[in-house]
Structures are given as C-alpha cells and as structure tokens.
Amino acid sequence: MKKRTFVIILSTAMLASMATGAFAATKLQQIKAYLNPEIKVQVDGTFKTMRDGKGNELASINYNGLNYFPIAAIAGALDTAVDYNKETKVISLGEKVDGVSIAKGFSDMYFTKDSKLTTYKGHDYKEGWFNNGPGNREASFMLKPSKKYQTLYLKVATIDGDISNFTVKDADKDVILKQVATITPEEGLATIEVDIGGADSLYIFGDVKDKTAVFVPLTASYYK
C-alpha cells in the first residue's frame, strides 16, 4: 500500500513538474481573475449570448476592473471570421486573404458597411461596394494600388441582372488590363484575376440595366 501511495505521489509530482515546465517554456503569466455573469453584450441594440466553440454559454472574466471575453466569442457575436495560427501565434479577425485587402483606403459613394447590403448568400462581408443606382448605367469605381502589387483578385456578384463588358483599366495609361463579356447572378461571387504590375490607378467599370445591383465585397478582394 505504501509503495502504491508513493507511486501516485511521484506521478502527481511529475505531472505538476511537466505542467510547470510547459508554462515556463511560454510567456504565460498567472493572474487572479473572477467570473462575472452579470455582464451582458449588445450588438447593434440586440443582446447576444456569448458562447465557446462547443456552444456553452460564457461569463465575462473580470480582471483589474476590466471585463474580458474570448476573442472567438466576440467574433461569433459580431458574425466575424476568426482564425489562430499556432506557428506564428497570430489571431486574425475578418476575412482571410492571401494579400492586402482593397478595403483599406477605399472611397466611393457606393461604399457601405450596412449589413443589409454587405451580406451575400448569408455571409456578411462587413465592408462592400454596392451599386444599386437607378436606370441603365455604367457602374464604376477607382482603386489605387500605387504600383505596389502585381495581381488584383476582385470578387464580383450581380443581383437581379447581368453586368456586361466588365473592365479593369490602367487609368493612367488608358490600357485595358482585363475584360469579361458578361457576369451573371447564377455565377455567384465571381473572382476576376488581373495582372496589375506597374499600375498606379485602376478604373473598374461595367454596364448594368435598371434594377440590377452590383456587389464587390471589399474585405474579400485583395492585391498580391
């Protein structure tokens, strides 16, 4: 019996030592915090239940007078994608892109953050270009890659009609870099890949008819 007790104690000590060693190998610091179930979260006026990855309800953690929730829970409440890279130890919020999002610095009268307009097929892209102007028209906007990138990956969707002669032009050289004859609603979110090496400004346009809208999710379109 004494031998068995000794083995259990030794095993426990080894586990504690291993745990201590694991923490010592990181920059984690031990703190004293409290759970605060009284804290509630509202998003755009609507109460949201904070949950973990398994769907369990979470309480806020209070530390030094501040309340905290896991980033994944906050992202879920905001309907925002979240990802963690174990190798780089980087947490990413929002759309995952392989390059630089065109949302940065984008300016146009049809720029919007209205979730009713930035949501396409059930997914809210948060920032978008949504051209729903009246009448038959040329739907157009400008981009400024400033000669920093080689390729543009542009996501485009049309709603209630086609867009024809969709064109990406080097605005300074007046040279067409890419032209797509027709993009239809049935294609869903189409990806237009364009070689933009050396381009400072881009003029992007296409022809649409009355009651047709064009959507470009800025957070999912990017330079590379």
UniProtKB/TrEMBL annotation:
* Lineage start: Bacteria, Bacillati, Bacillota, Bacilli, Bacillales
Stated name of the protein: Copper amine oxidase-like N-terminal domain-containing protein
This protein's record includes keyword Signal: yes
Q: Which UniProt keyword terms apply here? A: Signal
Which branch of life, at top level?
Bacteria
Secretion signal: which residues? 1-24
